[in-house]
# Entry
Amino acid sequence: MSNEAGTKNPVRFVTAASLFDGHDASINIMRRILQSQGAEVIHLGHDRSVDQVVRAVIQEDVQGVALSSYQGGHVEYFSYLRELLNAQGAEHVKIYGGGGGVIVPEEIATLSSRGIRIFSPEDGQRLGLVGMIKEMMDECDVDLAHELPSLDAVLAGSEPALARAITALEEGAAPDEFRNAIHDAAVRSNTPVLGITGTGGSGKSTLTDELLRRFRLDQEGKLRIAVIAVDPTRRKGGGALLGDRIRMNSVDLGSVYFRSLATRKAGSEIPENLADVINVARATHDLVIVETPGIGQGDAGIVPFVDTSLYVMTPEFGAASQLEKIDMLDFADAVAINKFERRGAEDALRDVGRQMVRNREAFGSSWEDMPVFGTSAARFNDDGVTALYQYLKEALVERGLKVNEGQLPIVNVKQPTGLTTVVPPARTRYLSDIAETIRSYHSTTASQAQVASRVQHLETARALLAESGSGTGEIDALIAKQQSELLPTVKAMLDEWPAMREAYREEELVVKIRDKEMRNSLWRQTLSGNRIPRVALPRTNDAADQVTYLREENLPGLFPYTAGVFPFKREGEAPARMFAGEGDPFRTNRRFHLLASGQPATRLSTAFDSVTLYGRDPEERPDIYGKVGTSGVSIATLDDMKALYAGFDLCDPTTSVSMTINGPAPAILAMFLNTAIDQRVDGFRDQHGREPNEDEMATLRAWVLANVRGTVQADILKEDQGQNTCIFSTEFALRCMGDVQSWFIDHKVRNFYSVSISGYHIAEAGANPISQLAFTLANGFTYVEAYLARGMKIDDFAPNFSFFFSNGIDAEYTVLGRVARRIWAIALRDRYGADDRSQKLKYHIQTSGRSLHAQEMDFNDIRTTLQALCAINDNCNSLHTNAYDEAITTPSAQSVRRALAIQMIIDQEWGLTKNENPLQGSYIVDELTDLVEEAVLLEFDRIADRGGVLGAMETGYQRGRIQDESMLYEHKKHDGSLPIIGVNTFLNPNPAEMGEIELARASEEEKESQVARVRAFQATHQGESEAALAHLKATAASGGNTFAALMDAVRVCSLGQITSAFFEVGGQYRRNV
# Structure
């Protein structure tokens, strides 16, 4: 059998990113090209264990698996995958991988010797993206359908045999004798079939997964269930995205067989041989669920194949008369109105119920008696889904399903109760409101500038008239009229400007920050003896220009903070951050001390290994073990955290700690705060020779919380949109973030950021600078709306926000901070009524990781230098410069020193840094600022049209945009139209001269030690941890503050134990394509 792509056989691939790896942009590009070349792709998304990949490969009976791997442990992961596939009899399955250069030649050679093909950046340059995919397609174009398994193996429940049988039946390659035997076995089984169909985007896959989860819980995993999910084949190219499996968390829990099918026929809702596939599933399982594609208003094509049918829709079907056009409302045994949290859901429930009364001619019945259920499947433990499950279970029992007594409590509702939304429905257009606020502000600026100009010109004319002895009565009236149109604030600005200008010509200026007076020298002297002003002021005397400057720009430290949020940089404290994270906490601690030695301020920037990033504990299992302490430090317990920061005074005013972690951020933050508190208590004990009493302990604790400085990233929204380390359901994760901020308010934590709203990882996933800035600010405003909806006050939480961006080399990066600060300040003041501290956007920068290339790595420092200069010119509040070798490894001590030297040279040697507002007054900077700002506001409008940030995330808007922009970059990089020196142009004619680079990986001793340490910690606290975990789950389930419970739990529980507990009460993250 051939297809439109020109292959001889249907070619099927499983694609995924490896375990604890959220860098799924590249694998998304690859799976899209695979589809365009005719492959049927089962995409699993990010963070997939070897067990999950193998299970998918076997059940889906594919010829190839393609994986991206960026987070270390490459050899262990791919080798373990080959080993498990071989053990399952899948030696024929080809394994392909790539890591953008982080998998080095030595590792590629090792894996090649084991039959695994790893594509290097040089392969990509030589073959191009499509060429790489074509090579994979050619190698995997093999016939599997004619290798028929034995009937006995199929009926005995062997998954490999069942998978191959479905392949043969799907292609019509099985002989009649085999088909008839399967048919007879299916009839004897009396297994019922549930069909699920509905409109595109209605959440069928999520609802299916939640029904599976309830079957498992209710029947204690004793039911054998097969799920057949159908997706359409693309007319052009013949490929298909089989995208349902990625949503199915329950598939990994056992007792569920999942198989994805393509229609292989354009315009068809179902595959040609679906009946045969259903028969083999019936013959081997207790229940079969068939999910068919989203089909607009709905064909009823699934009905003849199933015993019970469920139609899934959303509240937005238009006028009630549209319901008359939906065939499935004639045939469906039940209807689910999913996404019931949306506006109009209750009306939809009523209208669909009434339509079913008419369709069934059940005019003596109330619409409320119809089997129409409101569901919110994305909400963890939604009782509307439970009610639907109970109804379907009874309907299936009537058709032959054998069940035991249920374990789930009976619910007596037909729609969700206690529905809440993160952002209230009335506020979903908050981004458009903000865009309008910004535009209105600028419009006012323009009109006030004109008024000021007219006043100035009239006053000049009046002076000339008076000088000539002419009367000025009429012009005085005109001046008075124009002055009355000047806003009082604008008039005050103009009146104060001459004095302000004079003040900045003095030798020093006294400014007050948080009630502290600081004396600042206003001049710096060059070697040539010239005096350079620290802040340069515009020389214009034109009133219109002055109004525009004062409202759009202003001096550093003054609203709208375009030039910076503080009047001056702090003397003797450069914005440099000391970055470390490798091996165990002891090694990283040594690196921190090396970097901080001799520095006036200690700014520790911590990278965690991927095991920690995903909230798990170190283990010996190869796909976990290989990642322990690699590409970051391994932290699993409070003891690890104490070892990590040993020897640093965490409450010193010159010390701050930045922790780049998201999914398990609340637990890691709780460990850090406990470490800071215990450090202070230890100091008290050493000083007084005794334990503090209860009052002293409370005082010590309060002092620490008031003085500790730093940030934890914790930004869940950007993780879902970009590089994904989400582990809990989005709803639960956002609740936990809010709990942290609420706890901060209650305990007066004012100097620690509860969230670092990050554009860096959005940029690393492939976003251009406009999308990075727009999505990041939009996420920030979403937290504002969410926290306001929880009843918090804007000035209680906004100062605990910081922002973290990536700086590339594109022109727009020159003004990223300027635009961010101005939008934030205007919106916070004029839209939310916030005070000046809340208005100040803290702008933290890391140079671009995406511009670190594995080829000609020495050139990376040149790019990093330009990016660092850009950030310092834009008055960033802190800066982390990437080491040149981070392209492939955790940086060495020497490369980190080089990276730190880049910004030290700029800060201490580059002459123009003697001035602190070098961008102001540049025509191109002004042009770029306005251009980038309007592009951001247009993006706000687009996101608002999709229901705000959360609504846009639901449809995958941000991820889609990021993937498209990443694809554009990759294509331009590979075809050479985007010149990258040393990568696709100005190539080294003698690449061997570049030499080998030492790889920083955790040693075997460090890995073994971390596994042993976490087990020892768990054994020591076994009794206490059980009680703490029970309290943690009870707090989460009852709506209490999870962070308050975490502050106690981390003292006796490991990170992995906490994560597992939260999975039970908050739900796991559900991946999306």
